[in-house]
Design brief:
It contains eight helices and 13 strands. Strands 1, 2, 3, 4, 5, 6, 7, 8, 9, 10, 11, 12 and 13 form a 13-stranded mixed sheet that branches. By secondary structure, the protein is α+β, with helices and mostly antiparallel strands. The relative contact order is 0.18. It is elongated. Helix content is 29%, strand content 34%.
């Protein structure tokens, strides 16, 4: 393959990536209506939260490099009237974006996946569903204080879980949302800063992951790359770190 090829369809995209779990659970038929391939890499559309469309580039270094060079043509297809659009590339190849384009501030994050339930632990019995609508203000305040970078808000359809103090106040929370492809996705995991070091993060992530895997066979989550403690926790609970992304708005015009 000597040129970037435009392709179509989720089934072919999954074949091109050997069924990569990120593609399986983050891309839909509609998003895969058009995608691009060079050698051992693909560029595909994704949407998350308020971002209308973003492009992720996944695969071997040679192919990713070629697809980064091809971004103006990709943008002309999916964002023809936008001067800048969001791109996610493997973190070690982010400098290539800066060599070719004007790149704005973005974030570095990682995506995890498991199909294996963590071992059951007696502490899991303290993890219970919480009504995030009735307690929306309480959950929101808890996140603002103890996890200000949390990106899932209460009251938007996720399933929320909590560990509570004896007086009923929140000690730890986590949200169970759903990826575009239908997999459980954990987010906004937060522990009261005064109670850290007592294993509450392991308790709530372990319990919710066990429930998600039991119900659906899979669980996913994402984290900002600066959080080494969280990374160690997720790996120790059996998650695989499958992607490390640099997400940046890229300015293609002059």
């Amino acid at each position: 393959m000597t040129a970037v090829v435009t392709a179509h369809g989720l089934e072919d995209l999954l074949c091109a990536t050997d069924g990569h779990p990120f593609v399986r659970w983050e891309v839909t038929d509609e998003l895969a209506s058009t995608w691009w391939r060079f050698a051992g890499a693909v560029a595909f559309q994704r949407t998350r939260k308020s971002v209308r469309r973003t492009v992720n580039v996944l695969g071997d270094d040679e192919g990713v490099t070629a697809l980064i060079k091809h971004l103006p043509q990709i943008a002309a297809t999916i964002a023809p009237r936008q001067r800048a659009f969001s791109v996610s590339v493997p973190q070690h190849l982010e400098p290539q974006l800066r060599e070719r384009y004007r790149v704005l501030d973005g974030g570095d994050w990682e995506w995890f996946h498991t199909t294996t339930a963590p071992e059951e632990h007696p502490s899991h019995e303290f993890v219970r569903p919480v009504d995030d609508v009735a307690r929306a203000a309480e959950v929101r305040t808890f996140l603002e204080v103890h996890s200000p970078t949390a990106d899932t808000e209460p009251g938007h359809g996720e399933r929320w879980f909590a560990v509570e103090e004896p007086d009923g106040s929140l000690a730890a929370v986590a949200a169970w949302g759903t990826t575009r492809g239908g997999a459980p996705h954990l987010s906004s995991v937060a522990v009261d800063t005064r109670l850290r070091g007592r294993g509450l993060g392991r308790t709530i992530v372990g319990a919710v992951t066990r429930l998600a895997v039991a119900e659906t066979g899979v669980c996913t989550l994402g984290m900002y790359s600066h959080n080494e403690v969280a990374r160690s926790l997720y790996l120790s609970l059996g998650y695989d770190r499958l992607c490390a992304w640099s997400s940046r708005p890229v300015v293609l015009g002059h």
